[in-house]
Prior knowledge:
Blueprint: H1 8-17, E1 37-40, E2 45-46, E3 55-59, E4 68-71, E5 77-81, H2 84-103, E6 108-109, E7 112-116, E8 122-128, H3 136-148, E9 153-157, E10 159-160, E11 163-164, H4 173-176, E12 180-181, E13 185-186, E14 198-199, E15 204-205, H5 210-222, E16 226-233, H6 238-243, H7 274-290, E17 295-299, H8 306-310, H9 312-321, H10 327-343, E18 347-351, E19 364-367, H11 372-380, E20 384-386, H12 389-392, H13 417-421, H14 431-434, E21 437-442, H15 452-459, H16 462-472, H17 479-489, H18 491-497
Parallel strand pairs: 3-5, 8-9, 8-21, 9-16, 16-17, 17-18, 18-19, 19-20, 20-21
Antiparallel strand pairs: 1-7, 2-6, 4-5, 4-7, 10-11, 12-15, 13-14
This protein binds zinc ion.
Zinc ion binds near residues 270, 308, 311 and 314.
Amino acid sequence: MKRLFFTLFAALTLFALNGCRHEASTPDLAVVPNPLSMQGGGRGVLLPESGDPAILTHVSHVLGPEEYILDTRRGKVLLTAGSKAGLFYGRQTYAQILQQVRAKGENLIPGFKIQDKPAFAYRGAHLDCSRHMFTIEEIKTYIDILALHKLNVFHWHLTDDQGWRAEIKSYPRLTEVGSMRNETLIGHQRTIGTKEAQYDGTPHGGFYTQDQMREIVAYAAERFITVIPEIEMPGHASAALASYPELGCRGANYPYQVQTCWGIFPEVLCAGNPNTIVFLKKVLDEICDIFPSEYIHIGGDEAPRIEWEQCPKCQALMRQKGFTREAELQSYLITTIEKYLAEKGRKIIGWDEILEGGVSQSATVMSWRGAKGGIAAAKLGNDVIMTPNSHFYLDYYQTSDPTGNGEPLGIGGCLPLSKCYAFDPYDQLSEIEQAQIKGIQANMWTEYVASFDHIQHMILPRLAALAEVAWSNTNRTSYEEFVQRLSTALLPRYTARGYHYAPYAFEGIE
Ligand SMILES: [Zn+2]
């Protein structure tokens, strides 16, 4: 904070002294993400006695679709953007600046011109609502937080082993049975199978009606955020199998259950049963009716093949298709679904396991096991969203000493704010391959995160670092300077809105 820019006076003095320079000094203002350009100068805008100065807006197609220019040099707040989305981002910047001027007790917004546009078209955050259920109001707040950071994709993880959350009218048991687990493991999953493992004895669950999901889609759209739903296949399917056991390799008589602990389970959808494809298509029909997004996330991760190896139906399909490896069954299932969605004008995104057994070039790969899956996919010519667990898994601990710092129980790892900030989406890629990187995303898994307060604590302020990479990738400064701007531009906004952020996120910063 001590080193925070020049004061307004100093900036204006410098401007006067260097009046012959083409660019004025940067005014004493902090903006996160760091704008592409910020120049000081001009009259600025006086604050009225009450309320905020009006913003004069204009859409100009000369600018990129999300680009904006915010200008206070001529005594008015002028906002020009390439689209309504760009105007929305300009308003977010303006709100950050207005808050700073008021915090200093000043009555003049200094003169400046800010021009900005995002480095990546896809700027996402994910939320797992299967491991723990969150209310519609909480999800709206999550979307508000995304909007505050100028992110534009909400990836909604709706199905998993521990609960199916999306109402599907053609398969009502998915929510009648699959939305509720009997109880939940207490503590870390490393106790599973030991005498220490304890369960809470309390049922947990719930689901979103189709009307509620439509409400979320509309709420997000007002904030220029696209909701991408995720329906997991063929693994992470215990909740679906508990509802419709005939879709599993073990058959209708096997006592599948909605899982009560965490991990990877051998029970997967039977790839050799034609009814599995019928099921997935009907589910996706309803999902596509609710969610207008171009992309549908089909999961594809962590699907063990041990049951396929022993299943007569799966083995028969392999013989019929001439497959020699079970990985080809996964590829068959994913590409079948991809073709079906393509007929509806949709595209698939899957976790990087969809590369195994081969994937069509039109699939978008979400790289989560580090960046290596994304690098491999980009080299194959596939579109890539970078969500490496090493940098953007926000269920990881935030300091090197979680116990000493009083962090709540987490899945593990160590992902401080500085590491999020340091991610290089283009690492190891040629210029041509870099073009395949369409964006970045933070993932918020909730095995150990049961309350919405805790969610906020995990995503804030790390989401600000993600936003800075997403908008200002090649325009990043130093981590220390970022933290100073964050402290001035965003932390007060979190506080004003009642959001909780991790107090120990700034470990090592003076
Ligand atoms: Zn099978």
